[in-house]
Amino acid sequence: MKRLSLLGSTGSIGVSCLEVIADFPERFEIVALTGANNLNLLAAQIQRFRPQVAAVLNEADARTLRQMVSGTSTEILFGMEGLMICAAHADTQMTLSAIVGAAGLVPTLAAIEAGKDVALANKETLVTAGALVMEAVARKGVRLYPVDSEHSALFQSLEGHRSRDVRRLILTASGGPFRTWSLAQMQNVTPAHALAHPNWSMGRKISIDSATMMNKGLEVIEAHWLFAVPVDRINVQIHPQSIVHSMVEYCDGAVIAQLGVPDMKTPIAYAISYPERIPLKLPPLDLCSIGSLTFEEPDLQRFPCLKLAYDAIAAGGIAPAVLNAANEIAVEAFLAGKIPFLAIPQIIEAVLDRHHPQIPVHLDDILHADRFARTEARRLIASDWAGGSKVC
Ligand code: NAD
Ligand code: MG
Fold first, then answer.
1. Within-domain flag for 299
2. For ligand 1, what atom is nearest to the CA of residue 101?
3. What pLDDT is stored for residue 79 in this prediction?
4. Which of 99, 195, 222, 367 to mutate to test the pocket of ligand 1 (most atoms within 8 A of CB)?
5. Which domain holds residue 63?
6. Beta partners for 256?
7. In this predicted structure, what is the pLDDT of residue 388?
């Protein structure tokens, strides 16, 4: 029986994880659940999985939730303290980190510092604070199991091999809904267009990140920290079918890939049940009916976010945290109809240009960089894009 805390249980990954867990009650027990919104869903999850604790963001929601689940013995907490208690609960063996955005960093670190293994979906944890997080992982002797499908594929393709034999990591990317669109066409995309991912059903923020290809940029940084491979040996290839989830090329020319139908339950299940594989009820991969698998180079002109991410990790220090925070604010503004789609990379680049390089020594350095980038991004949006004045 594995005892789990689920951070972000009301999100796309959280719900998929609970679906896996519901099918294997003899294997998993839920100790803690957390959610920021959707109290109805969180209440239903509490009724169903009976965790010891649950947490929401604010006190008012905690009060409402307490009433909604008054028939259970679940203790309802709130705020960052509540999230950290859930992440680091004494009875938890593994914490699934599936909060979206840099908000996941502090609770994920709390889990690591408490000696918990982490199943990591929240890539922003490694993007913003990769060096500090990996240092804590090593110091605490815990393990990070990737949930991101590409990183799960790399993890599986690396197993049984020597890291010094790795020539490069090849991350695949679907290319998102605008893969074949010209820049002129992309000028008028709406949030509805951008949210309609061709292959994956995901939360709103990562769906926009997939459309700009910032998601792949964040994943390059995530792979760099997870597998200790320099970014100049991490390549991206567009693979519109999303069947090959990523590949590792070895020094003898052998390439090992992991394939499967695009469903997050596979990498989630592998992360929480490693080293075992559990029998999921998914349709089998039918390559004959798919017919062909294609690959192409990413176009950095049309998708500058990917290049911005490579530049940020090359610059190092707090640059990736600045990139990430500026991206979060730009994505939020795009979803709110305040800026056009093509303004997203412009805002991120402008904020990166304004930051003062610094090597983060403490978590506070990262949190400060995050706040700086959010403020700068909001300021730019308010001044340059107010009323849709600026043209991209
Ligand atoms: P989502 O928006 O569907 O869910 C996010 C969860 O975090 C929800 O439970 C929400 O209530 C909670 N949350 C939001 N803001 C919060 C805050 N400030 N503090 C605490 N909790 C907060 O997101 P998702 O698509 O499930 O993605 C979660 C993470 O997993 C992201 O980092 C994403 O990049 C990563 N990921 C997702 C997928 C996918 O298929 N959805 C795939 C790979 C990686
Ligand atoms: Mg991914």
1. no
2. 32
3. 98
4. 99
5. 2-146
6. 248
7. 54
